[in-house]
Write a structure and sequence with these properties.
Strand order of the largest sheet: 2-3-1-4-5-6
Bound molecules: guanosine-5'-diphosphate, magnesium ion
CATH class of the largest domain: Alpha Beta
Distance between the termini: 26 Å
CATH superfamily of the largest domain: P-loop containing nucleotide triphosphate hydrolases
Number of helices: 9
Radius of gyration: 20 Å
Order of helices and strands: EHEEHEHEHEHHEEHHEH
Length: 295
């Protein structure tokens, strides 16, 4: 049996969480077209007959600086330093720029074995793939490149096989029926955040945090979920709620449906919107909102 940990790193929006979800076969991380979708480090575990891959999803690599992104970057750096394999995810359809090569070389140093998942090949001209692979090798990036599409399921078996072959021999690190280290409560809060990321534009999604007040399974099997959406500004609150509460009702209804699918039970959801100015610049509040604590 081979088993080990794989840090999944790469730029924001490269497709890291999507790739982990398909390799694990269940939703362990939320996904949206916006950067900063993944804030925390999440383990996704893929179990096979003779392997266990423990993926460490990371928030990604950012240029923008505030207390939240700083903390997210530290998460990525610590994750990449203490694993059996690095899986660098690159969004192939964006092409390869000098700064991508630089970034790969920064993380792929030879200390830890590494692979590159060159993803989203479903939305790019195929003839560019070999050109980019050659370009990386000529630039001195020392890792095999696997072109894949997480969305269309292309070439994933080959990537998985390559990952397994680079893991050490050893027993499974987690019980085989486990797919994540995250609690249901955490995932339910994340589902709420995912729907907000998908529904609202501009600065609103990045300035919100979810605070769970009640997460409880009742005797009749129904889950009671009571949560606050914390935003940074009064006018954000107004936008989140919308005319006569229409926007909030809609986003809460989408979230509830997905929570029910995830939990396999009915959900009674209550949502409030609260304002806490500039919480992203306040370390204390970031911790209070549950970032930086792993279960
Ligand atoms: N076409 C296409 N889109 C993808 C693929 N993988 C991810 N995406 C999209 O890219 C965006 C960012 O994905 P996400 O997994 O959240 O990226 P992360 O920030 O690296 O975790 C989302 O809109 C995904 O649906 C893929 O293989 N093909
Ligand atoms: Mg992500």
């Amino acid at each position: 049996m081979r088993s080990g940990t794989v840090a999944v790193i790469g730029r924001a929006n490269a497709g890291k969480s999507t790739l982990i979800n398909v390799l694990v076969g269940e939703k362990v991380a939320i996904v949206s077209p916006k950067p900063q979708t993944t804030r925390d480090r999440i383990l996704g575990i893929a179990n096979g007959e003779d392997y266990q891959i423990v993926f460490v999803d990371t928030p990604g690599i950012y240029k923008q600086r505030n207390a939240l992104t700083e903390w997210m970057m530290r998460t990525t750096d610590t994750a990449s330093g203490s694993v059996d394999l690095l899986l660098f995810v690159h969004d192939g359809h964006q092409g390869i720029k000098d700064e991508d090569v630089e970034l790969m070389k920064k993380y792929i140093t030879g200390d830890v074995p590494a692979l590159i998942a060159y993803t989203k090949i479903d939305i790019m001209p195929k003839e560019r793939i070999p050109e980019d692979v050659v370009r990386l090798s000529e630039a001195g990036v020392e890792a095999d490149v696997y072109p894949v599409s997480a969305r269309k399921g292309q070439n994933l078996a080959a990537l998985k096989k390559a990952i397994v072959s680079r893991l050490p021999e050893g027993e499974a690190l987690f019980p085989e029926d486990v797919v994540s280290n995250r609690s249901e409560k955490f995932m339910v809060a994340e589902i709420m955040r995912e729907k907000i990321l998908l529904k609202y534009d501009k600065e609103i999604p990045h300035g919100i945090a979810i605070v769970m007040n009640i997460f409880e399974r009742k005797e009749n099997g129904v889950y009671e979920v009571n949560l606050d959406i914390v935003c940074e500004k009064r006018n954000h609150k107004a936008i989140l709620i919308g005319k006569q509460g229409k926007a909030l009702k809609e986003v809460a209804s989408f979230a509830r449906q997905d929570m029910e699918k995830f939990l396999g039970a009915k959900v009674y959801l209550t949502v409030y919107v609260k304002v806490k100015e500039d919480w992203r610049d306040r370390e204390g509040l970031i911790r209070e909102f549950g970032y930086g604590t792993e279960e």
